[in-house]
Design goal:
Radius of gyration of chain A: 26 Å
Helix content of chain A: over 70%
Strand content of chain A: under 5%
Largest sheet of chain A: none
Largest interface: A-B, 61 and 75 residues
Strand order of the largest sheet of chain B: 6-7-8-3-9-10
Number of helices of chain B: 12
Oligomer: heterodimer
CATH architecture of the largest domain in chain B: 3-Layer(aba) Sandwich
Shape of chain B: globular
CATH superfamily of the largest domain in chain B: P-loop containing nucleotide triphosphate hydrolases
Structural class of chain B: alpha/beta
Largest sheet of chain B: 6 strands, mixed
Strand content of chain B: 25-35%
Amino acid sequence: MTDDATTDVTTQTPPSAASPTGASSGAASAPQAQAIASALASATKPKPPSAVSTSMTFGWRALLKIKHVPEQLFDVTLFPIIMTLLFTYLFGGAIAGSVNEYIAYIAPGVLVQSVLFITMYTGTTLRTDIDKGVFDRFRSLPIWRPSPLVGMLLGDAVRFVVAAIMTSLVCLLIGWRPEGGFIGVVLGTLLLLVFAFSLGWIWTFLSLILRTPGAIMGVASFVLMPLLFGSNIFVDPSTMPGWLQAWVNVNPVSDLVTAVRALMNGTELGSELVTTLLWSAGLVAVFGSLTMWKYRDPR
Amino acid sequence: MAELAIETHGLTKVYGDTRAVDGIDLSITRGGVHGFLGPNGAGKTTAIRMLATLIRPDAGSATVLGYDIAKHADEVRSRVSLTGQFASVDEDLTGKENLRLLGKLYGYTGPGASKRADELLEAFGLAEAGDRQVKKYSGGMRRRIDIAASIVVTPELLFLDEPTTGLDPRARNEVWDIIRAMVSFGTTVMLTTQYLDEADQLADRISVIDTGKIIAEGTSSELKASVGAASLQVRVMRRDDRDAARDLLTRELGVDVTTTNDPQALTAAIDDRARVTRALTALEESGLELAQFSLGQPSLDEVFLALTGHAAEAADNEEAAA
């Protein structure tokens, strides 16, 4: 106690100066102070963990969050079901004459669409983390710098898998019989996951330069719309006007859909596989670097 | 081992037109608590975030524990720890999961991280709350888990950004006890606060910061000497009496007595406490009735008034900018 406390004549000192609880908390804290000192003393500095290990740990964090907030899985389960039913029955009759004929064409496309659409939540989740302050803690750790982001994208991959499984199940239920078999569907999904992970770096970059989750959603939708709808997901581009065909042909999502389709439907796999992997590598190289550059000093 | 915990030269951070931190020179020795005292928006948080390598300075240089914050950020990160103003743990996870997460990130194996988490929960009085989500914690518990998270691996230097803002007096005392325990262990603590009282209780030396600049530095008694040892506050019963009371107090105390916005109130910085009793007696003998009086430490406002000539104003743009 300082001499001020004893000579304080009376009342109106600011609330922070009065400490009637001093005695009680003093008594309670004596063993605590000792426990804290021993906790400080017993901490041995372990060997710094590897980049893989810290990334996996952040992936584990994302899974824990799903455990505590299972509502997060709402969008990845319901959204694919609605998308699949809506687009199959909406376009099926007009485009291919019947749903049964259309399903082989659209099932891989809807799968791609559902998963890529969900990737943009990566950006809003990251923004929320930044705003809450927990990201400051992660950024102040002596670990491989990208690992919180990589881990987050790995955790999101679990959500993407759930979305892919839901979409596949709905498609199977309404008559899809993929010629590529189980293996073909798994390989197609893996390729999709690689591309989704790479696309995620655009959203992490956006979340470091935009200030609100709403703004990120807005920009992400604006980017995703031409990528998803200006593609060969729903219809064969040969029916489109020339300028649109030109766009569809350079759109990386078209290459991805063609490759996934070939894998799942057991048709011949063309150069689209390599093109998709090159696009993925390019996205990581460009937006991964931009993300890490902003990550040093985010807004 | 470097002598100094923190050394900065002309450290500056600019956000748009605002010089959030405007050329700070610091030289802080190891051990004990160094306080960073200033109102909201003074630049405390921005300065501490630069020192903890969270944001990059626009000009100037700084070394923390002997390592340059720009060139050897990783060396700095492995030796310091930061407890931010806002929850610096994941509120969706439980207290124990948060500590296990950090333990693993520092390189503990699974069981090692669990053991360390239990040890810390026990030491911080959170053992029973360990399996509850942090968002269900009280303000005091949340601060404790924040601090526990900062010492999963014992840091050489701990940054605490306004550790008691928004806490009730009991929780605040607990946090003070924790800080004292860490200091007696040998950890250097750099603490920001808006409360002179808190800086006075904990800090060995205090830097007063205002609009991005250090305007005074010294021990708490040195700072208080600049505003008088104590502050007398008086409220007269009838506002018509105020001028008469002011004249009388000025004469008896031998210092300037100032008026405030409150039409019944008078305040004075006191050097000699003995004269206060005489002055109060004189007031009573003259029939000037008092509604209230108190003699306390000078407030942050008074320190600011004395040091800067203006009151401590909350410039809210720091948080928005940071």
